[in-house]
Amino acid sequence: MDETRPRRSWLLIVSLCLNLALNGGIAVAVYRLAHPDMSVGGGGPLSPKSVMAAFPDRQPAIAQVIAAHQAKILELRRAAAVARRDAFRELADPDYAPQKMAAAFKTVAAADAALEVESIGMMNDSLATLTPAERQALVDRVRKRNRSWFFHMMRRRNG
To answer: Are residues 6 and 43 in the same domain?
Structure first.
């Protein structure tokens, strides 16, 4: 019996360490999900900040691209938020009318489209700073990412 007690203590210590590591990983994942990167130029494998991380020597040029688009993107984000707020107010209005709601939704769609056009323009300008070899390396990196088992496991499925 004396031989099993030290072994049991060792297993409990290892189990405790693994549980702490797992809980830490879960806490980091939850924090990242609750606090997404909302800065201009972030989000997605082809976003300017992702390109900057992949090619550190291109950071100054891409930072200039982000700076050139930042004020416009922030303005368009605010306009999209105002359009959504106005649509919600229309929904809450005691004199609700489907035609007014449809008009509010058209305003939301137009604001979102303008933001998307500017964001894609920023992405295009940042990708234009890369050499053909760097663009190919980026394409290979994205393809490799899309083939990973973890990416496919976490991807949403229809149905």
So the answer is: no
At residue 32's C-alpha, the angle toward residues 49 and 52, to 5°, is 10
Measured between alpha carbons, how far is 136 from 99 in angstroms, rounded to an integer? 49
Question: Hey, what amino acid is at 151?
Answer: F
Q: Which residues fall within 8 angstroms of residue 72, CB to CB, at 6 or more apart? A: 118
Number of separate domains in the chain: 2
From CA 94, how far away is CA 91, in angstroms rounded? Answer: 8
Q: Which amino acid is at 18?
A: L
Return the amino acid letter for 150.
F
Taking only the tens place, the pLDDT of each residue in 36-69 is 666 777 778 889 999 999 999 999 999 999 999 9
Q: Residue 90 to residues 33, 79, 86, 111: CA-CA distances in angstroms?
A: 31, 16, 6, 17
Residues 63 and 131 in one domain: yes
SS3 24: helix
What radius of gyration, in Å, describes the C-alpha atoms of the chain?
A: 24
3-class SS of residue 1: coil
CA dist list (Å): 23 to 16, 20, 107, 109, 150: 10, 5, 44, 41, 19
Per the structure block, which two tokens stand in for 86? Answer: 């106005």
pLDDT tens-digit map of 74-106: 999 999 999 999 999 999 999 999 999 999 999
